[in-house]
């Protein structure tokens, strides 16, 4: 996404322009031999930057309809139909990701997310959706996080399962399983986010939001020979009489005894059982990252978290990934196993951005460039 055209389109809109025309001159210093510097990719990034600037948040569209749309048309000099189709498909997905990820914790509480997805994905070709409440027997770690919120009907968690199958399902050569963190609001739970650091935690659902948007992009571009399944955990980490607390030992879906170290490490909790379920259907983490999560006593197999932020923990950025591998049972499916399962952990921060800017849906664009665009002949 080109930041210059993002800022330029913002400036044009602020000046009252309703139909900006994008013109990209020759880049004299363009590096030779890099695919991302090919003309069509430059134009795609330009369009995506302009589209991002033209987005109107969901609450603004609903509460102040006179402010929408910001533009009536966006023009591009020397564009073509294929480029416009790809850019439009990616933007439709990002629109969904921004709507879910950027909206406040009431407008996009779990039941409201489901209603929204049922509306926008209705009729989406190749996409099926199944929704269930959080079942403590199927998803015990997730259910622990959901306990406090479950007594408030509008906050009660939901698991959304999405599937994409190409038009010719007999040619499938690649299957992706995606697990999404959709924390609709994170109070920290019993280990409350004190000291003014709770603001902005409605963005903790941006991982699941980006995956949901990715399915719209899949539907619009219909990549062949690729199937994608996703399970999204939309759960609120609330405070209440039934909150889960540190020191609890909870048995995961994979049969691992997990001792809770801090209730503010809820993201890995809601995803671990879903990752285990995905494993059943079918950044490099180093040895010391696994060592951190090993149980300290005979009571537990795995320690969920310590009481320090990741920035104050040695290699804290990798600890959640190692926990998910261990709690889901994926550690039994390494390269040396009979059934190796490749696994990648994508952090939510790149999609959530800062509270004062729009969610980026960055994982959506990454997944699209890796798995969709080569299959539809764009890359």
UniProtKB/TrEMBL annotation:
<dbReference type="InterPro" id="IPR011356">
    <property type="entry name" value="Leucine_aapep/pepB"/>
</dbReference>
<dbReference type="GO" id="GO:0030145">
    <property type="term" value="F:manganese ion binding"/>
</dbReference>
<dbReference type="GO" id="GO:0006508">
    <property type="term" value="P:proteolysis"/>
</dbReference>
<keyword id="KW-0378">Hydrolase</keyword>
<dbReference type="GO" id="GO:0005737">
    <property type="term" value="C:cytoplasm"/>
</dbReference>
<keyword id="KW-0031">Aminopeptidase</keyword>
<dbReference type="Pfam" id="PF00883">
    <property type="entry name" value="Peptidase_M17"/>
</dbReference>
<dbReference type="InterPro" id="IPR000819">
    <property type="entry name" value="Peptidase_M17_C"/>
</dbReference>
<dbReference type="GO" id="GO:0070006">
    <property type="term" value="F:metalloaminopeptidase activity"/>
</dbReference>
<feature type="domain" description="Cytosol aminopeptidase">
    <location>
        <begin position="262"/>
        <end position="269"/>
    </location>
</feature>
<keyword id="KW-0645">Protease</keyword>
<comment type="similarity">
    <text>Belongs to the peptidase M17 family.</text>
</comment>
<protein>
    <submittedName>
        <fullName>Cytosol aminopeptidase family, catalytic domain protein</fullName>
    </submittedName>
</protein>
